[in-house]
Design goal:
Elements: E1 19-22, E2 25-28, H1 32-43, H2 48-52, H3 64-71, H4 77-83, E3 85-87, E4 90-98, H5 103-114, E5 119-125, E6 130-136, H6 142-152, E7 155-158, H7 161-198, H8 206-227, H9 229-240, H10 247-267, H11 274-302, E8 312-317, E9 320-325, E10 334-337, E11 347-351, E12 354-357, H12 359-362, E13 368-370, E14 375-376, E15 381-384, E16 387-391, H13 399-409, H14 416-446, H15 448-461, H16 465-484, E17 487-489, H17 494-498, E18 503-507, H18 508-512, E19 518-524, H19 530-541, E20 562-567, E21 571-576, E22 579-584, E23 602-606, E24 609-617, H20 624-630, E25 635-639, H21 644-654, E26 658-660, H22 665-677, E27 682-686, H23 692-697, E28 700-704, E29 717-719, H24 726-761, H25 766-785
Parallel strand pairs: 18-25, 18-27, 25-26, 27-28, 28-29
Antiparallel strand pairs: 1-2, 3-4, 4-6, 4-7, 5-6, 8-9, 8-10, 10-16, 11-14, 11-16, 12-13, 12-15, 17-29, 19-24, 20-21, 21-22, 22-23, 23-24
Helix pairs in contact: 3-6, 7-8, 7-11, 8-10, 8-11, 9-10, 10-11, 10-15, 11-16, 11-25, 14-15, 14-16, 14-24, 15-24, 15-25, 16-24, 16-25, 24-25
Length: 789
């Protein structure tokens, strides 16, 4: 017969000798960890825990060596390739973390992990119960990070949508069990004590009252040990890390109430507060449960792309179609997508045409026509037609997955106001503890029997839970709102800086214009047919990804090209028939442009001689005029690498007074730095192709479109549908978010300032304090959720 561990319920290995006496019987344990926990429970007189528990406890922690050995599996290359993003020696992973209750938990994890040598960045999203960790793999292994999180008191594992959802449901069920037990016991204890208080049963003698007290103690103990266990575990984690959080004053208040009531019961003197303690836990759990649900709703709206992460695909092999896992698809494989199906992978259409719903990526609900040769993206829906798609990116590297990762990183860099609020809440908890101690001492001199009660009221009423929720709840909802509009925010603290922007720089090609070039004229500088130079240019451009290349894509390419290379921001070069050609802007040419060619903006050179020029026309985006109108109260500058006539024509058409032409990426960077030096807060809007240094330098940067370099883009905001007027949405939500954070912090601080004198003076009773604290936190969360509208 199999013997199970009395503590955790796992099978006890054969020959195990770990035993101790619990509930007057010898019990068996699977390991020294479970044995040590059980002995500690017995020694502290808490054996009733085993009597009233409704499920087995988690297996007790083993020693560090055993734990590290277990976690070493996460250092395997297969695991790392599945869950970890790599850039040289820098690794990044998303983790699901269970046990997070409030903002203080996130703060604690961030601070503790930051102490590890090799950690580069830690960002905990409390609402989503996820953490994004970047580290130097030469200095630190993933197993060591997971072990450190375990030692703090939380459980972490690589983020997977299905497991993450299961983790939420498991936590939700645990909440309901604790809440149900607390509610049931509260009703029973209240019934007994109402009878005593109001003498509903007639005259009750002291012996009967004492009997009721003992019954109340029996009913309340499971509430403290099980229902309130989350508050104690949170407090212990903080104290273990030599810090304090919101759970510390709550745990202290519950413990003091329970101990004073137990003492009164044993001595048969004084007042017991079992009914109040049960009610405290019940009301606190209701508050936490409602917060838990509200934060989950916000995080789900923010991470709604996860539900569109494809799981299955129809693989085409040898003209046969069979279902496979989407994540198993490899490059160059063919996939069939029927009408109504989710596109399972990023790829190019090789056969068929369809009408696709790309609202998930762009926020626009109009169907987009796609035909042979065009790109489609994982997570979009093929509403009409049948498509055969050639895989160009694995699911891990798909645009949808990149967006999910960037979205999770959006809260990594918190606004200054968030950092101030986090630090303030830590100090405020310490002030609460000090104030409660002073309250007890003062009231002990005035009315000893009420001193403990008033101290507990102070501990509960002034717990800064609302302050801890003020910023993260607003940021989560703001990010969710932007995602719903097809706007990807990569840096949450950018919302704070956007409100202060007073200097706006625009790139021209691909930003103010559509970047869809057409060849309007070829100006020949030597005696040779235009067609020949057009063919040379087309042969060179076929290897380029710049939008200019599309102007030459319909021209025949008869010549092979060798030694092709690109000079960012200037042009391209390659060798044809042993002649090295250069094709690009005037800055790329090695001699002055002849006067007849100055009407052109792209030039072809060989042997230090400009052979011909091409005049390329570009169309202005429909949304350009509207966005420039909204920036009329800011200094707007057009910065381009194009020739002066081309830049001047666009600037004049759009009524932009400040414009700069023939600027290299380095010169653009200098312009931005000078504006910042002059005291301006700079917003840079570029297409991200050759503007990475400028986008990184600007206070806030915006780029357009979904490109293959999305994950490496230097921009803070990505407009997925290339619509410039969405910048107005970003400015609007940034202003609203800033106001919500101020409102939340103002309310949280104002509430604590208001209730503190009431609690100290004895006007506010503990049960009133519980209700007030719960309502304060809920008001903050509900106020933040309004950002979703």
């Amino acid at each position: 017969m199999e013997i199970k561990c009395f503590h955790c319920g796992l099978a006890v290995p054969a020959g195990s000798h770990y035993q101790t006496k619990v509930l007057n019987k010898p019990q068996h344990f699977c390991c020294p960890g479970c044995l040590a926990v059980a002995e500690s429970i017995v020694e502290n007189g808490l054996e009733d825990y085993y009597h009233y528990r409704s499920e087995f406890a988690e297996k007790a922690s083993e020693n560090d060596e055993d734990l590290l050995e277990k976690l070493s599996v996460f250092d395997d290359d297969l695991i790392l390739s599945e869950f970890v993003g790599k850039n040289n020696s820098t690794h990044e992973i998303q983790l699901t973390i269970s046990g997070i209750n409030c903002a203080a938990c996130g703060w604690l994890i961030e601070k503790q992990l930051s102490k590890l040598k090799g950690i580069m960045q830690v960002a905990v999203n409390v609402s989503a119960r996820r953490a994004t960790v970047s580290w130097d793999s030469d200095l630190l292994q993933l197993s060591a990070i997971l072990k450190h999180i375990e030692n703090i008191g939380y459980h972490a594992k690589p983020f997977q949508p299905e497991q993450h959802e299961a983790s939420y449901k498991q936590e939700n069920q645990a909440f309901l069990k604790k809440l149900g037990l607390a509610g049931l016991m509260t009703m029973q204890v209240m019934m007994l004590n109402i009878g005593v208080f109001f003498d509903l049963f007639g005259h009750i003698d002291e012996q009967t009252k004492q009997y009721f007290n003992w019954v109340s103690l029996l009913l309340t103990t499971p509430v403290l040990l099980y229902s309130a266990s989350g508050f104690y575990s949170g407090a212990l984690r903080a104290l273990k890390a030599k810090s304090v959080n919101m759970d510390v004053p709550v745990s202290l208040a519950l413990s003091l109430t329970y101990l004073s009531s137990v003492l009164a019961t044993f001595q048969n003197t004084g007042q017991t507060y079992f009914e109040s303690l049960s009610m405290f836990v019940f009301l606190l759990l209701i508050s936490r449960y409602l917060e838990h649900g509200a934060r989950y709703k916000a995080s789900q709206l923010s991470a709604n792309m996860l539900e569109y992460m494809p799981t299955m695909a129809n693989l085409v092999e040898n003209k046969q179609v069979h279902p496979v896992l989407a994540k198993s698809l490899k490059l160059e494989q063919l996939v069939l997508v029927k009408a109504g199906d989710l596109v399972p992978i990023d790829g190019t259409i090789v056969e068929g045409q369809g009408q696709l719903d790309e609202a998930l990526l762009t926020g626009e609900f109009e169907l987009v026509s796609k035909t042979k040769g065009e790109k489609v993206y994982a997570g979009t829906v093929n509403q009409l037609g049948t498509l055969t798609i050639k895989v160009t990116s694995t699911l891990k590297h798909s645009v949808l997955n990149q967006i999910n990762q960037l979205q999770s990183q959006a809260l990594a860099n918190k606004p200054k106001i968030a950092g101030i609020a986090d630090r303030f809440s830590q100090y405020f908890v310490a002030v609460v503890l000090l104030t409660s101690a002073i309250t007890y001492l003062v009231w002990h001199q005035i009315s000893p029997e009420e001193a403990l009660w008033h101290m507990i009221a102070v501990l509960i009423a002034t717990c800064p839970c609302a302050l801890g929720l003020a910023t993260p709840s607003a940021l989560s909802c703001a990010v969710a709102h932007l995602n719903g509009k097809g706007i990807l925010l990569k840096r949450a603290d950018a919302l704070e800086q956007i409100s202060n922007v007073d200097w706006v720089a625009f790139d021209k090609t691909g930003t103010l214009t559509e970047g869809k070039f057409s060849l309007s004229q070829c100006v020949n500088n030597i005696d040779k047919r235009d067609e020949h130079w057009l063919q040379v240019a087309a042969c060179l451009e076929q290897y380029s990804e710049h939008p200019i290349a599309k102007a030459f894509e319909d021209i025949q390419c008869p010549y092979p090209v060798v030694n092709f290379s690109t000079v960012i921001g200037k042009g391209i070069q390659g060798t044809i028939n042993n002649i090295q050609y250069k094709l690009g802007s005037e800055l790329y040419m090695e001699q002055e442009i002849p006067k007849p060619l100055q009407i052109c903006n792209v030039f072809l050179q060989a042997n230090n001689r400009v052979l011909c020029g091409f005049a390329l026309a570009d169309k202005i985006r429909p949304s350009t005029t509207a966005i420039l109108e909204t920036f009329k109260d800011k200094k707007v500058t057009l910065i381009s690498g194009d020739a002066e006539p081309m830049v001047y024509a666009i600037a004049k058409q759009l009524h932009i007074p400040n414009w700069l032409s023939k600027h290299t990426p380095e010169q653009k960077l200098g312009v931005i730095k000078k504006a910042q030096k002059d005291g301006y807060t700079v917003l840079m809007v570029g297409d991200g192709i050759n503007d990475a240094p400028v986008l990184a330098q600007a206070n806030v940067s915006v780029t357009l479109g979904v490109s293959s370099d999305l994950a490496k883009s230097s921009a803070d905001v990505v407009l997925l549908d290339n619509s410039l007027d969405k910048i107005n949405v970003v400015f609007n939500i940034a202003k609203r978010c800033k106001n919500k954070i101020k409102q939340n912090i103002g309310w949280a601080i104002g509430y604590n300032i208001l209730v503190l004198p009431l609690a100290v003076s004895g006007v506010l009773t503990p049960w009133m304090a519980v209700i007030g604290m719960s309502l304060s936190s809920l008001i903050v969360v509900i106020n933040s959720i309004r950002l979703l509208k």
